Amino acid sequence: MPNVYKITYPNGKIYVGVDHLDQITYFGSVDPKVVAEDFTSEDRRDFTVRKQLLWESEEATREEARAVELEWIRRLGSNNPDVGYNRWPKWTATQA
């Protein structure tokens, strides 16, 4: 069952992704280098991330699920580097 989820990191930044297999342990394909830049060695010793389902469907196609993911990325602004870790679609100041 495909779903769209939001990951919230301890610094408040978010990542929106899609999981086509409904795997509880899947936390997306966020760029680890981009996330790592925001955390010190001390920060990395103990932190919690939160995963929330934003949408799910028993019958959506992959294309439909990707469209919903894009909708949520834009709605939450998670492609804005000040807000989140999505790097697609590329953030532009006109989206603000």
Q: How are the elements arranged and paired?
A:
Blueprint: E1 3-8, E2 14-19, H1 32-36, H2 41-44, E3 50-56, H3 62-76
Describe, in plain words, how this protein is organized in 3D.
- With about 100 residues, the chain is of the alpha+beta class.
- The protein has one domain (about 5-95): GIY-YIG endonuclease, CATH 3.40.1440.
- It is built from three helices and three strands, in the order E-E-H-H-E-H.
- It has helices at about 30-35, 40-45, 60-75; strands at about 5-10, 15-20, 50-55.
- The chain has a three-stranded antiparallel β-sheet.
- The longest helix has 15 residues, at about 60-75.
- The termini are far apart.
- The relative contact order is 0.26.
The CATH topology annotation reads as GIY-YIG endonuclease
> Strand fraction band?
15-25%
The main sheet orders its strands as 2-1-3
Element-by-element helix/strand order: EEHHEH
The tally of helices reads 3
- Total count of domains: 1
Low-confidence stretches: none
Number of strands: 3
First-residue to last-residue Cα separation: 32 Å
What's the average pLDDT? 95
Broad structural category: alpha+beta
Helix content: 25-40%
Largest sheet composition = 3 strands, antiparallel
Radius of gyration from the alpha-carbon trace, in angstroms: 14 Å
CATH architecture: 3-Layer(aba) Sandwich
What would the keywords be for this entry?
alpha+beta, 3-stranded antiparallel β-sheet, 3 helices, 25% helix, 20% strand
Task: Give a short synopsis of this structure.
By secondary structure, this protein is of the alpha+beta class.
